[in-house]
Design goal:
Elements lengths: L1 H13 L6 H14 L4 H12 L3 H15 L13 H6 L6 H12 L3 H8 L1 H8 L2 H15 L10 H12 L1 H13 L5 H41 L10 H19 L10 E2 L1 H8 L11 E2 L7 E7 L5 H12 L8 E6 L3 E3 L1 H6 L2 H12 L5 H12 L7 E6 L11 H10 L2 E6 L13 H5 L4 E4 L3 H15 L1
């Protein structure tokens, strides 16, 4: 059963539940202690050893029911289709069917060969346990656990039928068909019943194994797609992906206590260190909360050409409240205004919509920088990071480069994220090359993968 448990852990990983090798060994120890007979007890034990949050526990319980809740071959749910019910021979006909086929075996050698196979014997006896074991062995032999795409279902169905030995049934059916034997429909019924069981087995494995991998594949595509080219029907998936990426970064960069010379005495660590000296506390350790938390000022161009990018930057930043508690946001196009209150009063998505409605329009970077200087330039200090998201296309106006240079001199760092390709910087009415001289860092940023990497670097620098 270790292979079954290993398969279950692989399924959990495909659903983005982190399971380390040490946790895998813990899960195996739990399974060997509790056994597999009591399914509910095993499920609760694995949940205690593997799930580290309520969200992970919900994923584990759902995957457990899917993975270990498989039915025996031939068992049908209450809503079984009529076609499937007709394909399965009735149990009270099994002995009569076997007798008729035995009588015809003398005339057809192919039928006699098929009757000698364990597969047809299992079908004639309606031995669901043995048939389920045979299906499991065929699935392992054909690598069915590697199924990922729905287009592979037919391929794996044929492989499993070949591994089960269905070829002998096919030869017998062909021989009976050529002789126009009355036994043809009887044998075809058993063959069709077998094929139905294999198709259903492959379908269950596809739904079980492909769901997590397909989600990862889709997430990878969405990460690499330009944000202004994402279709509306994918917006819910993209928002969830942004939250998931933010959770990962928050877990990676959550503030850890540092050794201090003042503050609250870390009694546990001090006592442990004193064990080597017979309990004498030669070394003391202190805990102290840092109060100089960094501040981030985000200036987002919400004009039509850049609005999609600004929406996801703001969604990303405000999903990181545990790591970046001091975020102030500004939206601009022809003029600039602070929108931090919108995020306090409304959900993130609604706040972004209101910001686009209030400040959208033709772009004037010079006027917007003047507005920022009046509103927040005095708050920019050596602990401030200023992030500007925009294409720097100023429609031929005055770029007010001196204001950007003033921000550069006061801030800890100035980061400019431009959704345009670097080859387009400085072309036409783009002022990007001039603004770049007043930035500590400027980068092309037009998809979630690039945005995640830049935010990750920002969080590293803020530690």
């Amino acid at each position: 059963m270790q292979s079954a448990l290993t398969g279950f852990i692989q399924l959990l990983r495909s659903h983005e539940l982190r399971v380390s090798p040490a946790e895998t060994l813990d899960a195996m120890a739990v399974a060997s202690t509790l056994g597999y007979a009591d399914r509910e007890r095993l499920r609760d034990g694995l949940a205690l050893s593997l799930a580290k949050s309520a969200r992970e526990e919900a994923i584990l319980l759902r995957c457990f029911d899917q993975y270990f809740g498989r039915e025996l071959a031939g068992e049908k749910p209450s809503a079984a289709t009529p076609a499937a019910s007709e394909a399965a021979p009735a149990p009270d006909q099994d002995s009569e069917d076997a007798r008729q086929l035995q009588d015809g075996a003398a005339e057809f050698p192919e039928l006699a060969e098929a009757l000698q196979s364990p597969l047809l014997q299992q079908l004639l006896e309606d031995n669901r346990t043995e048939l389920s074991l045979s299906l499991g062995q065929a699935a392992a032999a054909t690598g069915l656990g590697n199924i990922r795409m729905f287009t592979q279902k037919g391929q794996y169905t044929r492989r499993m039928l070949d591994a089960l030995g269905e070829e002998t049934l096919r030869r017998a059916v062909v021989a009976l068909e050529q002789a126009d034997s009355p036994l043809l429909e009887l044998l075809k019924g058993y063959r069709d019943h077998l094929r139905q069981q294999v198709r259903e087995y492959v379908e269950r494995e596809y739904l079980l194994n492909a769901q997590g991998h397909n989600r990862q594949f889709m997430d990878d595509i969405l990460r690499r797609t330009r944000l202004n080219q994402l279709e509306q029907r994918y917006m819910d998936e993209v928002r969830e992906l942004v939250r998931k990426m933010a959770r990962k970064l928050a877990a990676r960069h959550s503030r850890k206590p540092k050794v201090q010379k003042r503050g609250q005495l870390d009694m546990g660590r001090t006592l442990r260190r004193g064990i080597a000296h017979d309990g004498i506390m030669f070394h003391t350790y202190w805990r102290k909360v840092r109060r100089d938390k960094p501040q981030i000022l985000a200036l987002c161009d919400v004009s039509g050409s850049v609005a999609a990018y600004a929406k996801f930057l703001l969604l990303f930043l405000y999903s990181l409240q545990d790591v970046l508690p001091r975020v102030r946001s500004f939206a601009f196009s022809s003029h600039l205004g602070e929108i931090s209150d919108l995020f306090r009063e409304h959900p993130v998505e609604k706040a972004i919509e209101l910001a686009n409605w209030r400040y959208g329009g033709a772009t004037d970077y010079g006027r917007s920088l003047e507005d920022f200087a009046e509103l927040a330039l005095a708050d920019v200090s050596s602990s401030t990071t200023v992030i500007v998201l925009g294409d720097a296309r100023n429609n031929g106006g005055d770029p007010k480069l001196e204001i950007m240079q003033g921000i550069y001199q006061r801030a800890r760092r100035v980061i400019w994220l431009n959704p345009e390709s670097r080859r387009a910087w400085g072309s036409g009415d783009s002022e990007m090359l001039r603004y770049q001289s007043a930035c500590h860092f400027a980068a092309e940023c037009n998809n979630l993968q690039q945005l995640e990497r830049i935010i990750d670097q920002l969080l590293r620098l803020n530690h």
